[in-house]
Specification:
Number of helices: 11
Shape: globular
Largest sheet: 7 strands, mixed
Radius of gyration: 21 Å
Length: about 400
C-alpha cells in the first residue's frame, strides 16, 4: 500500500518530466479548438499554468485566432494578491490591460453585464478536492449565469490532489447550502473539477449559492487531462504545484485541509498550523501537554495515522509569538485513513484530557462550522458527547451512493 507521510514529503519540484498533461496543454495542442474566432472570458488564478509555469492568461492572450477579452477573479484574485476572505475589487489587470471582474466582492455570481460581449467562458483553477473550497462554488455560479445567457463554458481539467478514490463525509442538508457548501456532494468528493462540473450540470445540483433556486444547465465542455489516473496523488503527476490560496502552499496542505479545517473553524479552540509553517498540519495550544495528547491519540489505534509531539511559536494570528504544544499528524497509509475524521479524534482526545467542548459558547463560529459541515448534525451530536462514535454512521452514510453516482461521470 502507498505510504504517504503528510508534511514530511520532499518539497522541491520533481526532477522528471510530468506524467500528466493538464487541460490547458491539451487545448493548446489541439490548436485551441472551440476558442477560434471567439471572444473569450477566463476564470483563473495563479494556479492556472502549464507544466513550465506559464500562465493560462498569457497562453490564451497570445494564442492565434483567440480573442481573450476579460478575466474573472475568484477569492484571492486573478493574481493571488488578496489574502483569505479579503474583498476582491474589479479593475484592470496590470500585466495584460484586460478588464478584471470580481467574483468575490459585491457579487459572487457574474452579472449579465459582466459577460456582455463574451462568446465563451473558460475556467482553469487548481482544485483541492474538498467541498468547502470556494473555487468550485464560483464555477457553479458562473455556469448559472452562462446558462441564462446561452454562453458555453469550457473547463480545463486538472488533477484532484486528494486522488480520485477518496470520498468521505455527508451530503449537504437542506437549509445549509452556502458558498462553502453549495452542492449536495460529500465533503471529499473524489472527482476532478471537470468531472464535478459535469455531475453538477447533469444532476441538477446547480441551484445557486443558497441551494433553493431552480437548477440551470449550461452548455459545458471539459478538456480532459492526459496521463492522469484515479490512484494518483499530486506528487505522482510530475506537475509543479502553484498554491491556489495562501494556506495551501504545497499539495500536502490540500490533504491537510479536510483533515483539520473543520476544527479550525472553531477559531479560539486549537491552532491547526495556520499562522505557522504547517497550515492544516498540527493541533496545538499553550495549555496542551503534547506527550499526553499523543499518548491519548495513540491509544485509539486509528488506521493509517501516526502522531508526533510538536512545540512551536506561530508567527501571526491569535497566538503570535506564544509557545504552543500539541501534535503533528502523518498519513502512513493514506488509503486506509479516514482523513476527515482525524480532526474529530483530536477533539475527542482534547475533551477526554481537558474537558474542553468547543461547541459551548462558539458564537458566530458555530454557524460557520455548520455551513462548512453542511448541517448542524455534527455540532449537535458530537457537541453533546464529544465522541466520534456519535457521528461516525452519519459521516459515512452517503458515501456509497455518491460513489455509485460519481462513476457515471468519471473520465479517467
Amino acid at each position: 500500500m502507498r505510504r504517504f507521510l503528510l508534511f514530511f514529503a520532499a518539497l522541491i519540484p520533481a526532477l522528471v518530466s510530468a506524467q500528466v498533461r493538464p487541460g490547458i496543454e491539451v487545448l493548446r495542442d489541439s490548436g485551441f479548438e472551440g476558442l477560434q474566432g471567439r471572444r473569450v472570458g477566463l476564470v483563473t488564478n495563479p494556479s492556472g499554468v502549464d507544466c513550465d509555469l506559464r500562465s493560462t492568461i498569457d497562453i490564451l492572450a497570445e494564442a492565434p485566432g483567440v480573442n481573450l477579452v476579460a478575466l474573472y477573479a475568484p477569492e484571492h484574485g486573478v493574481r493571488g494578491d488578496i489574502y483569505a476572505g479579503g474583498k476582491v475589487e474589479s479593475g484592470r489587470d496590470d500585466h495584460t490591460g484586460l478588464p478584471v471582474h470580481s467574483l468575490y466582492g459585491s457579487t459572487r455570481q457574474p452579472t449579465k453585464e459582466m459577460l456582455k460581449g463574451v462568446d465563451i467562458i473558460v475556467y482553469d483553477i487548481q482544485d483541492v478536492g474538498t467541498r468547502s473550497y470556494t473555487f468550485i462554488s464560483t464555477l457553479g455560479l458562473v455556469m448559472r449565469t452562462c446558462a441564462e445567457m446561452g454562453i458555453p463554458v469550457m473547463v480545463l481539467d486538472r488533477p484532484n490532489p486528494l486522488g480520485g478514490l477518496k470520498i468521505e463525509g455527508p451530503l449537504v442538508r437542506d437549509g445549509f447550502h452556502s458558498f462553502v457548501s453549495q452542492y449536495k456532494i460529500p465533503y471529499v468528493y473524489g472527482l476532478t473539477v471537470g468531472e464535478l462540473a459535469v455531475l453538477i450540470n447533469e444532476e441538477g445540483l446547480n441551484r445557486g449559492q443558497n441551494g433553493r433556486s431552480e437548477p440551470l444547465k449550461c452548455k459545458l465542455t471539459v478538456i480532459p487531462m492526459e496521463g492522469w489516473t484515479r490512484d494518483m496523488l499530486f506528487e505522482d503527476t510530475g506537475l509543479p504545484w502553484v498554491l491556489p490560496s495562501p494556506n495551501i502552499p504545497y499539495p500536502e496542505n490540500a490533504i491537510g485541509y479536510p483533515s483539520a479545517g473543520l476544527c479550525g473553524e472553531l477559531y479560539d479552540y486549537l491552532n491547526i498550523g495556520i499562522g505557522y509553517t504547517m497550515p492544516f498540519g498540527t493541533f496545538a495550544e499553550e495549555w496542551v501537554d503534547a506527550d499526553k495528547l499523543k499518548a491519548k491519540l495513540d491509544s485509539y489505534n486509528l488506521p493509517g495515522v501516526a502522531w508526533r509531539t510538536i512545540h512551536y511559536k506561530p508567527i501571526s494570528g491569535r497566538l503570535n509569538g506564544k509557545l504552543i504544544h500539541g501534535v503533528q499528524y502523518y498519513y502512513t497509509d493514506y488509503e486506509a485513513a479516514d482523513i476527515t475524521l482525524t480532526q474529530f479524534y483530536v477533539m475527542q482526545a482534547v475533551y477526554e484530557l481537558y474537558g474542553k467542548n468547543p461547541f459551548t459558547g462558539a458564537g458566530d463560529r458555530l454557524a460557520m462550522f455548520n455551513k462548512v459541515c453542511g448541517s448542524d448534525y455534527v455540532s449537535v451530536n458530537f457537541g453533546r458527547t464529544m465522541k466520534v462514535s456519535s457521528i461516525a454512521a452519519y459521516w459515512t452514510a452517503d458515501v456509497d451512493a455518491f460513489r455509485k453516482l460519481a462513476r457515471k461521470y468519471q473520465m479517467y
